[in-house]
Amino acid sequence: MTAEVRPVLIVGRSGQVATALLRAAWPAGLRPEARGRMELDLTDPAAVQAAVAERPWAAVVNAAAYTAVDQAESEAEAAYALNRDGPAALARACRAAGLPLIHISTDYVFDGQKDGAWQEDDPINPQSVYGASKAAGEVEVRATLPQHVILRTAWVFSDSGHNFVKTMLRVGAERDELRIVDDQRGSPTAADDIAAATVTILERLLSGRGAYGTFHFANSGTTSWYGFAQAIFEEVAARGQNVPRLTPIPTRDYPTPAARPMNSVLDCRRIAQTYGITPRPWAAALSDTLDSLLPEPAAAQSPAIQTTKGAR
Ligand SMILES: NC(=O)c1ccc[n+]([C@@H]2O[C@H](COP(=O)([O-])OP(=O)(O)OC[C@H]3O[C@@H](n4cnc5c(N)ncnc54)[C@H](OP(=O)(O)O)[C@@H]3O)[C@@H](O)[C@H]2O)c1
Fold first, then answer.
1. Under DSSP, is residue 112 helix (H, G, I), strand (E, B) or coil?
2. DSSP β-ladder status, 189-190 and 245-249
3. Active site residues
4. What is the distance between the alpha carbons of residues 167 and 181, in angstroms, rounded to a whole number?
5. Going by CA atoms, what residue is nearest to atom 40 of ligand 1?
6. Given this model, what pLDDT does residue 309 score?
7. pLDDT below 50 — which residues of the chain?
8. Residue ID of nearest Cα to ligand 1 atom 15
9. Of the residues 21, 33, 37, which should be mutated to test ligand 1's pocket, given the most ligand atoms within 8 Å of the CB?
């Protein structure tokens, strides 16, 4: 007789975190099953209810969101539909089915004005429509479903989906110089590491050894977008490819529709104390992601000549 394997509903399929959840190492008794927007539209409460009731899920993970931060400024209705009303419907359905929900949230619920790292109970004060819609989603989940974990993370990157690493690789191959913001600080975080933390949380919750509530998870160490870009292109150069010249600039020289927190650094002590999850350094996680994005270094090339396309 084989042991029972219980499915876990992953809301989202092709997103960074959803993809990472699907390829994460799951314990023998749990198996992820994803529903992308074509199969489960999070903005349709009846579809949410039906999906949660459809199977004897062990738990639900919400990895879906409206994540186009600048576009959200002009599409507030769509952002709130997905980031507030979707999680609210999901939390109601989970409550009815007696299921725990892990809901992924963001550093953008904070205003970025604190000197130190943000703790879970610090007051939120989002500065963008995206941040406000995600904050509203948190409020709904907390009010509706006691069996929730809200996992806030930051600066997510992966070898799939849209993210800063992939953007740098693309524009770095096209241009001789990149001007990158150097006065916003945060912790770049691998989607694979968020997925591994989520699996650990679920395993503990489902065996009665977990705790509900809000937790921060980000890879360790902090940098700026400029520092992040430097690390990316150091790895690119080490793999024998040309890299652009990088110029640090202040946020005011790179205006965007949505305001970003100047300090996005998350204090991750609570998840370490409660779940024993200690994030690895962001640079190590970056190196793994670049290994899957970039070809092996060409042995014949010398790093000494791998600078810019003639600009340096
Ligand atoms: N990206 C970041 O830097 C960052 C930073 C902090 C926190 N977060 C949070 O981390 C979580 C995951 O972000 P991500 O970067 O993995 O997102 P992403 O790559 O932009 O993917 C978005 C996901 O949302 C799903 N989705 C979009 N519209 C939907 C709808 N109407 N119904 C159901 N699903 C829908 C997509 O479904 P399909 O699979 O069908 O495309 C996709 O799986 C989000 O909660 C986000 O707020 C992200």
1. coil
2. unpaired
3. 130
4. 14
5. 36
6. 31
7. 299-312
8. 16
9. 37
